[in-house]
Structure formats: structure tokens, C-alpha cells
Amino acid sequence: MMMADRDDALPAGPLLAYCGDDFTGSTDVMEAFTAAGVPTVLFLAPPGPEWVERFAGTRCIGLATTARGQSPEWMDAALPDAYARLKAFGAPILQYKVCSTFDSSPQVGAIGRAIDHGVAAMGGRWSPMVVGAPRLRRWQAFGNLFAAAADGVAHRLDRHPTMSRHPVTPMHEADLRRHLAEQTPRRTGLVDLVAMKAGDGSARRDALCADDAPIVLLDVVDEETLAEAGRLVWEGRGEGIFSASSSGLQYALAAHWRSRGWVPAQPSLPCPSAVEAIAVVSGSCSPVTASQIAWAAGKGFHAERLDLTRVLPVTTREAEIERTVTAALAGLGLGRSPLVYSAAGPEDPAVTGFDAVARVAGLTRGDAARAVGDALAEVMRRLLDRSGLRRIVVAGGDSSGAVAGALDIAALSVTAGIAPGAPLCRAWSKVPSRDGLEVVLKGGQMGAEDFFARVRSGGA
User: What confidence score (pLDDT) does residue 460 get?
Assistant: First the structure.
């Protein structure tokens, strides 16, 4: 039996808890809910009692992980405990937050495996999935996922110029039902956009629900289907459900709640103030980030490449990190915001030759990728310790996790908007020099060409 809303307001208490598959996408969830007036906090490690007490009254909590880059075996070991901790929050919806480009494969970041553990934790008679998010230029139609490329043109994901050639999880199938069938034996259904627009969504959802808790994809192509997806999920939450979804789920729920008058009619976040300088590190291989790096370098930022041939071998790693920091600080001394990067787009030799460089250093591809993230994190740590800068950007999901750990950040909350999917956050830390640090964790595909300048200028 589906649950119908009986009151004229949201129920008291927690509304949703989520496990992020990476750090950048986890802040996207916070942005969507915070703008809708739903207090949200993201923990970067399982919180202790003091942090739980500090954020008492929060209506949504998240726990960031590195699951997107991990194996199914890693998920088997880590996700049950993460889900149990989040379930204890008492929210009726438990979410595994996935990237809106559905980065996954049977070997790496298997969303299907994450769903199987989530359904086991929460139960329920269905597992809704909302991936489309028009604000982020992501659309799902008849189960197929589409995304805009750097030039603004929308592509089916298996023909997307970036995602079809992703170095780790290339997208060869845009039909998410077929894509998931390689990752889980769980039954998968769809409420398509025709049913959503014709008012048949509830009947279609109820017909699919059963004791085996199938995955049910909800098409989202516009604001109408977005709000309808939110209604289907909220009214179908029962005694508790699990959902593997992008931040499209937050946008959908907020759209439904807005239609009921339960949250402010206009979602909004304040604009941040400008600062004189910021520090940026980027481990992203996205062409979007590459264009942002090139734009910033031509507009007064000090762009410094981290040399992978020197940072991967242990014998030269320390010297390369220190060289990079020294050069970045010299640029800052001239009034130029430092921007340290390890790659500039998928065709960069640092990307196409990465495996060869890793082999020379005696590292596996996975260990080499982590070494790059750790090096960028150490660069950022030294930059902050020696400069006193208080606003930073990290581009790339793996890099974001490494930097957050190196800076002893326990939690994040959204304070202002910069660009869709990449808000300005406040860092919470027991370390006084890190507490209150302003942080933007940017996914590779997020932001316009002038993104880094917008972070510095407060969005202007």
C-alpha cells in the first residue's frame, strides 16, 4: 500500500539520508536541498557523537565515499555498514547518490551492487531511480539517459563525446535498464514519460511493486516530469525505501514539495562575496575542466602542471610536490591565484600515456591514480599552510576525497551558489585553521568556462 500525504506540511524529523558515491556529487545533493530550504549536512567520514549533536535538527544527512571508483568486493565490505549508519538517522528514504552521467561498470562503481545492498538494508516493495536533472542538463527519456556536452549539445550517453570514452567507465549503453542488467539480477521496470505526463504514473508504479523490490526508473525530461517523479517517490515511500539516484531525486522531491506549498516557492542560495585570491587543484580529465583551466590561465591565474613522470616515482615525488608548491606561491606573490592541475582533457598525453607512466613507476593504474590524488592534496595542504588563503576549489571526484582527508575536514554545509552542481561550502573541522574554510568540490563536467573566476569573484 502506497502512502498518501495527509498533512499540509512535511512531517517532522529526518526526510532523507544519502551515501555519496564520490565527494563532488555529494555536495550537489546539498545544494539542491539547501536551496529548497531543507537543512543538509555532508559528513566526510562516519561522524562521532559530538558531530551528531552539533548538527541535531538537520533534516538530511549525507556520508561521502569513494564508491564510484571501487570494486564490487569493496562495496560488499563497506556499504552495509555505511547504510546501517545512515538508516539509524531515521529518514524514510535512503539514497545511494550516483553521478548524473551514471559512471559505473560491473567491475568499477557497480551501481547494481550498491542497490542490492541498499534494498537489503531498507526493504520496501520498490526501489525508485531518478537520474534525469534538467537543471544539470541531464534528461532520461524511455529509460535512455542523455547529457549535454561541453558545447551545450545534448547526446545520448553512449554517443556522448566524453562519457562514451571515459577512461575508467565508458558508457556503451544509454538504456539504463540494459546497463544495470550487467550489474545486478534484480528486476528493472520503467515509468516512462508518456505515463508520467498522462497521469498514469501511480498505476504504473503500483503494478511494478512486489516483494522482490524491483528497480523502477522514472523518466524526467522537464519540470513537469521532475515534479511527478518527486510525487511518485514521496507518496510511495511506505515504511521506508531505498533509491539509487542522482541529485535529480532531490530536485524532484523539492519540486513536489514546492507544488504542495511545503517549501519556499522559489529555490535560492545567496551569492558569495568576492575574495582577492583562491587556490585550485584539479585531477579532472574532463574536456570541460580543460577549457576552464585554459580560460583561467589566460585571465591571470597562475596555472602550474604537476609532472606525473616525477610525482609517481617515489624517489622524485617529494621534490615535484615542493617544486609545484613553490611555483604556485610565487604566482600568488604576484597577485595571481594558483591553479595546479595534473591533466588538461582526455587527449592530454598525461591521460593517454598514464598507464605507461604508472608502469615505469612500478604502480598499478589504481595505485597511480590514488598517488596523483594524494599529491594534489598535499599541494593544497602546503599552499594553505603557507599562504593563509581561505577559499579553495578542487576539481575531480577522486581528488576531492583526497584533499578533504588531507585537510582534516569532518563535514560540509552549503553557504552559497556558484554554478549548478558546484556550490560554495563551509568546512567543519576540529582543526582551527581549517574550520570555516570555503570549499568548492567541482565535478569534471560542471561549470561554465569562467568557473574558477566566478568562484573568486563571488559569481559575478
Answer: 58
CATH number at residue 187: 3.40.50.10840
Same domain (yes/no): 253, 284: no
pLDDT tens digits for range 269-317: 888 999 999 999 999 988 899 999 999 999 999 999 999 999 999 999 9
Strand partners, 97: 20, 245
> How far apart are the C-alpha atoms of 374 and 60, rounded to whole Å?
30
79 inside domain: yes
